[in-house]
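I keep forgetting this: the sequence line spells out the residues, with the fold written below as integer tokens. I include a record here:
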Amino acid sequence: MAERVQVREIDDDEGQRLLRIARRGTGSVVTWRRAQMVLLSAQGMPPARIAEVTFTSADRVRDVIRNFNDDGFASLYPRYSGGRPRTFTLPERRDVKKIAKSKPAEHGLPFSTWSLAKLADFLVAEGVVDDISHEGLRVLLRDEGVSFQAVKTWKASAGPDYEAKKARVEHLYAIADREVAPEQGEPQVIWCMDEFGPLNLQPRPGRQWAARGGKHKDPGREPRPRMRAAYHRNDGVRHLLAACDLGEDKLYGHVKARKTRTRFLEFCRYLRSLHPLNVRIAIICGNFSPHLSTRKDTRVGDWAEANNAEIAYTPTSSSWLNRIEAQFTALRYFTLNGTDHRSHKEQASMIRRYIIWRNQHAYDERLRRIVAKANVA
């Protein structure tokens, strides 16, 4: 039987130094992890148990202990060459972002949320990165648009295929963002599609510029514009069928009186007509019944198969995964808030003109800020 690997006998000064390194919240994560392993070994813990505590392999623990026995404290510090700080590759940055947006419990950890220290430690232990400081991790997440936010209430998905559907949607987003190249037979054009509505004819609260009131008001000013308080909805409702081409960052929409499977297929045919038939497309949408193929009505699946298209459904109660939702937030802010349209023709005309403006000003700072704030996928 092989002899158990254990750290050599250490004196009080060395023990105190190891304890200071293990308790320190700053500096290299690699140094902190190695010091923790050595300290646990000095306390009599076997390598297999240390590996469980530090979320790494037993072989890695044995290597750290042997190196400490041979080289002392010098083995705890990673040997970096000179030059500029290491730049993380695009796949590494994507993996860091994906793990940061996940829950620690999904990785078998007993934590409710990530701290910078826990996240950096996990990334190194899993081999996502060789080493990363807490400040470097914070800067990387900020550059990737990830921040530490308060948890909001959300309806969790109870669908049995949640993980598989979520993974497929995220992979399609990676293709659209040029983070991965589409493989043979995979879609090259990614659409996010959903219905927005119902669109009623009613006064909508909003903001406007108006003359100041109070004791500093101009005595001769005109009354502030006001909206009607009583109204009747005698003309029914309308629905906006909208889709966003993620690669080109363009929004398309049709206003319809109903949102049925027939109207959904009409809109899908329109999206298909915008690209050659030999270019495979994917349409990400919710599992709203008109989007589905059923035993009695297989038109959606038949159309997708015949037109070189994929219909990718978001998981149940997970419409937040659909990036079109953030576009609806911007549409409501710029076009509907503060309006009181008297006809559906007037309201639809304004929505169409907004879509034209939005596609011509896709990089408008205010627009991008609203979309980024609302976009969680």
User: Anything to note?
Assistant: The chain has a mean pLDDT of 84. The longest helix spans residues 344-360.
